[in-house]
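Researcher: Please translate sequence to structure tokens.
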Amino acid sequence: MKINCIIVDDEYISRLLIEKFVSKTKNMNLIASYSSAVEAINNIDEIDDIDLIFLDIEMPGMTGIEFITHFNKLPQIIIVSAQEKYAIDAIKYGVADYILKPISYARFAKAVERVRERIEKVSIVDTNQNDGVFIKENNSSYVRVKYSDILWIEALENYITITTEKSKYTIHFTMKSFETKLPSNIFIRLHRSYIVNYKKIEAIADNEAIIKHNKKQKKFPIAKTYREQLLEKLNFISK
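Model: Translation complete:
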């Protein structure tokens, strides 16, 4: 899952350090770095898809807390401040983490991981009926997808795609986390990149499972690790 982030901090050395940490962290993309909240406010509306803001508190012209109130819908916020006294105020706004300067990479990485977990949680929500999930679409609305309608899930570099008979959804989510939400009486892992609805499997040939979709056959490799588990779930009759 790639995280798009910006930095808002009036301290030059602090900005450089965070920029360095972002550059060495996998699946993080620095979009912009601003020396003041005022500068960020004047440019941020031109930027799409900001997942995370590294934000200082004490800045001239506009404080970090005042900056936060600019947003109707907040991205994830990690406060990076030399002062501990603003922590309670920041928590009221639901910031993901509050790091005291000077920061270490270990502390930075821990805060980023917390943000990843938060983003995943708001990307998909379990239904109360336990027969499906609500998936967040690009327009921030949620669409309900029944488990029985899902054909397969595929892992991409920073996302997963969920394919149904009629639609395909791409979301920021790890395959491992999504697998924990799936009922084992419907889904099975075939490969590190694929989970399938095994009730939709129509044939197995040459170590591949076949599912029909839009009148075409989609073939999925069956890794040795998962083959025995698949055979146990399916009913085989042989001569």
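Researcher: Any highlights?
Model: The domain at 3-122 is CATH 3.40.50.2300 (Rossmann fold).
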